[in-house]
Amino acid sequence: MQLWMPVLTVMVVVIGACSGADSETADLLNQTAPADDPSSAAPLVRSNPVPRDGRAASDPPDHAADSEDALAPRNRTDQLPEASASPTGTATQADAPAADATPPRLQGPAEIPPATASAMTRPPAEMAGINALHDSLRAETRRVRFGTHADPATVTLGPTDGGLPRYPPYDGKNSLNFKMPLGTAVLAPLDVQFIGFKNRSARYRQDTDAPRLEPFDDLELCFEAVSDDWPGLVLCVYHLHTTPLLQSHLQHESCGIQEQWDGGGAEAGRIYYLQNSTEWSRGDPESCDPLLGSILTRGTIIGYSGQVGNNPHVGFRFKVRSTERNPLTYDGDPYGHWVQPAVFFYWQCLAPDAVFQAGVLAYPFDCALVPE
After folding, report:
1. What value does the mean pLDDT of the chain take?
2. Neighbours of 111 (CB within 10 A)
């Protein structure tokens, strides 16, 4: 299969070429992450309370070495995309990129549209090609495959069990990991708007009483759906190595890779966590030349996958609006719920002639990488 993606354009600024973790063993690790605002405590009673930056003080990092180390690329230079591998897709923006170009969010109770296919509504009317790669993605021998699913305790809408593989998630993990070789193009699964980023990447991370993790790709991007199928859906993608949406990423120190991970770095717009969200500018986000506010169509390259230790992968978090309140949310819109992506949504491959029924998402990679 040849990867299909529309041509990348920006109305005012043309995006130029630029140039984890899975926790199969993450429960053996600990982390100490600084709270963005420790003055407010979450009402959720857990053994590891989550501070306002979204990470518990003793949560293990989502990036331990996995059981398939032999599949992990060792030479980062050889694995990263060349300058000729310019991102392709469609992105539009009304104004020049700016660090404060975050669009207003949709908030409040909302039903999933009845025509939208999901675990909460109904299956697609036509099932040909739907979830066609799921069996292959659950096989541990594939170079692109499912990694650790979300912690069921974080899922407050729809099925809580992600199914195989059953790597144990750490407490509070609210994402699905896709394991893939370093530098794999990560694609938008639906039409979205770029609303926030946080660049915490480092050459290594060394937590107390934990193995040294090197490299440590920790770039996160957040998006909001602009599709009528999923009003107000939030998608955050993390453990990216780089992205065309930060036009100056990796070009200088203030928007590059720090030596040792300390939880800081350039940040702007909205970032979503398990129990809250943040919206501010920190570090020097303007140095990244971000395209905040850009609209990306399904299939656009949103970034290139990163690596943490010996584990190359990328994480996906999805938040869906509902008429019910999320009991875990203590700050922000209480009607957004984290879901179990592999089983909450229906998925299919991108292709030039592909027709996506309401609610169906695109697998976020070139399906040719995953033989059926």
Report:
1. 80
2. 12
Provide the residue type at 100 as one letter. D
Q: b/e map of 210-238 (b: 16 or more CB within 10 Å)?
A: beebbbbbbbbbbbbbbbebbbbbbbbbb
Q: Are 36 and 160 in contact (CB under 8 A)?
A: no
Cα–Cα distance between 120 and 344 in angstroms, integer? 8
C-alpha 87/C-alpha 338 separation (Å) is 29
Residue whose structure tokens are 């869906």: 320
> Residue 79 belongs to what H/E stretch?
helix 76-79
Predicted confidence (pLDDT) per residue in 334-343, tens digit: 999 999 999 9
Q: β-pairing, 267-272 with 347-348? A: unpaired
pLDDT tens per residue, range 87-113:
344 444 433 444 446 777 778 899 999
**96 within 8 A of 89, measured Cβ to Cβ:** no
- Single pTM value for the model: 0.80
pLDDT digits (tens, 9 = 90+) for 150-176: 999 999 999 999 999 999 999 999 999
CA distances (Å), 2 to each of 108, 342, 368, in order? Answer: 41, 24, 7
The pair of three-digit structure tokens given for residue 349, joined into one six-digit string: 């491959």
Please name which of 130, 44, 112, 122 lies closest in space to residue 331, comparing C-alpha atoms: 44
Count up the domains in the chain and report the number.
Answer: 1
Which domain range does residue 180 map to? 1-372
